[in-house]
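Request: When convenient, would you put together a sequence paired with its structure tokens?
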Amino acid sequence: MTPAEVEELFRRFAAADPEPKSELEYKDPYTLLVAVVLSAQATDAGVNKATRKLFAIADTPEKMLALGLDGIREHIKTIGLFNSKAKHIYELSRILVETYGGKVPRDRKALESLPGVGRKTANVVLNVAFGEPTIAVDTHIFRVANRLGLAPGKTPREVEDKLLRVVPPRYRRHAHHWLILHGRYVCKARRPLCDRCIVADLCPYPGKSA
């Protein structure tokens, strides 16, 4: 895409949805972190269903530790990979209490050192909880960035690096959500809803349905 097309793309996204929000339910940086760790290979709706009851009794690292590994496992057993995720939640809660005074650090290296937290999860927390202009490349963003020719790449990191170069600075904080929501609801994997797409005229994807 040309710089002018990129500008127009994000101008339209911003006009349609000026303040996009995460679809994960959370109260603060800690509950967001837990929700994002749980969301790996799971739907936001499935995570929200589990965390509503979990966060009602354990919405701080201290309360999560008091709930214990078995208690955490019981609350998230409807989510895929719940055994390993329960261990991650317990261990990251312990580290937050012992090392960071129970607070989620606003630092990429510190976040990525926590169990179950990779680059994508850290990017989500930095963006959503702290307003950092990071872009977490999931399957939706990877697909949309390649289809649009916005930031073509063969790996999530390659796409992320290109997006950070081409997205105009004023749009960078919300770019993550605009692209993920567009991929989730419009530019779907198997059958993109091109007739509902507000940027279809800017898209070179040969598989367009309109």
The chain has a mean pLDDT of 94. The CA atoms of residues 5 and 202 lie 7 Å apart. Residues 29-117 form a domain with the Endonuclease III; domain 1 fold (CATH 1.10.340.30).
